[in-house]
C-alpha cells in the first residue's frame, strides 16, 4: 500500500474531479498501533451521513464479498492464487499480527536495502485493467470517468461476478468492511469527533462519495440499468469500494503516476518510521519496495502510508498511531476574523483575493506552526492604521508559493501571539470537554454488539483527541512563554523609560529651580 496512501490524504472530489497526489513509504514495527483485539468482532452498521434520499437500509449493509478483516483463510487462498499467477517466491508471508491484524511477516532474514515483492503488472489493478464485463468497461471509458470513480466501479463490477472474475481471490481477501471514517455514522462523528477538525473532513469525504455515486448514477448507471443494476451498484457498495481505495490504492511514480491496487503489497501495514514507498521497478518489471532496515524471520515488515497526521490515518485507514510516535502528526487549528473588527470587510476582501475565508485552518505540529498562520494572525489583529499592509498579510497567509511569508510586525506581535493562544485555548477546552466526558458517553448502549463498536470508536476518538490536544498543549506552552518574554521585555523597557523620565524630570526641575533662582 505504498502509494495507496498517497491518495488517501486528499479528499474525494465529486463530479469526477481528479485527486491530488500523496505519498507512501514504508516502515517497521514498534511504533504504531491501536489496540484492536482480534476477538473484538465489530460489525459496523453504516448509515449515510447527510443524504436522506440515498440513506441505506439495513439489508443493503451486507456486502456479499470480502472477508472478516483478520481472515487468514482467504489471505492464504490469495497467496496461493498469486503464486500460480506469476508472483515470484516471497521472503514474507501473510500472518495474524499485533499491529494491523493481518500483515506481512519475514520468513527469512531480510537485509537493509533489499528489494521485496516484485508484483508483476499483470497482477496489478489499474484504470487500464480489462473488465470481465466488457460492455460495462466500454461505457465507463466512453464517458471518460476519471480513475477513482472508475476504479471504484470496476471493483464492484468484478466483485459482483464472484468466481467469474479473475480477481475473485483478491476480492475475497479484502475486508468486507474496511476500517475508515466512511463507516462512521453522522451521529458517531458528531459524538466522538466533535473536538477534532477530522470530523469535518470525514463529513466532507462521505458527502463527496455520495456525490460521486449520485453523479455516476445520473450520468451512466440510470442509462444502462442492464449493465449497472441498482442492486449491485448502490451507495453501500460504493462506500465499500471507496473504503478499499482509500485504504489500499497507491500511486506508482515510475508508471506515470498510475493509481493501482497492488495485491499482496497491500497486505503491508503502516509504521511512522519509514520513508520509502512502493514503486514500479523497471529492471525487475514488478512493483517493489526497498527495505530501509533489516528484518529477522518472524518480524512484521512495514511500509509507510505517507507523512500523515494521526487524524488523516484515522480518516483513511481507521487507526491511530500510539501517542507521540508519529513525527508527522499535526492538528488543524481554526482561526477566524472577528466580525466586530472595524476592518472586517476589508480584511475579508484581502483574504478572498487569495482564496481564503474569514475562518481558516492551519496545521500545527509539535515543532511549531506555519508562517502562514502567523501572517493570518497579524491580519486578524492589525489595526485600521495598518490597512495598507492587509494585502501582503493575506497573501502570506495563503499557501501560494513565491510569496514572502516571514513577515514581522513587532508593533502587533504580542496581539498576534495572543490571538493564536486564544485559538489554541479555545480548541483545548473542546478536547478537555470531550476527554472528560468520554467515560460516560456509552452508558446508554444496551446492545452488547453496539457497545463493542461504540467502545472501539470511542477509543479511537480518545486516542486521536489526546494526540491532537498534546500538540496544542505544546503550542500553548510556547506561546505563553513568548508572550511572557515580550511582556517582561516591555516591562523592563518601561521601567528603564520611567527611570529615565524621572531623572530627566529631576534634572529639569533642578535646572528650572536654578533658572528661577537666577531670575530671582
Ligand atoms: C493496506 S491495508 C494493510 C493490510 C490489512 N492489515 C489487511 O489485513 O488487509 C491497510 C489497513 O491495515 C490496517 N493497518 C495498517 N497499518 C496499521 C497500523 N499501524 N495500526 C493499525 N492498523 C493498521 C488498517 O486497518 C488499514 O486500513
TrEMBL record:
InterPro entries: Rubisco_LSMT_MeTrfase_plant, Rubisco_LSMT_subst-bd, Rubisco_LSMT_subst-bd_sf, SET_dom, SET_dom_sf, SET_RBCMT, SETD3_SETD6_MTase. The keyword Zinc does not apply. This is SET domain-containing protein. Keywords: Methyltransferase, S-adenosyl-L-methionine, Transferase. Residues 90-306 form the SET domain. GO terms for cellular component: chloroplast. It comes from the Eukaryota. S-adenosyl-L-methionine binds at residues 248, 269-270. PROSITE patterns: SET (PS50280). Substrate binds at residues 248, 266, 280, 305, 317. One of its GO terms (biological process) is methylation. Gene3D superfamilies: Rubisco LSMT, substrate-binding domain (3.90.1420.10), set domain protein methyltransferase, domain 1 (3.90.1410.10). One of its GO terms (molecular function) is protein-lysine N-methyltransferase activity.
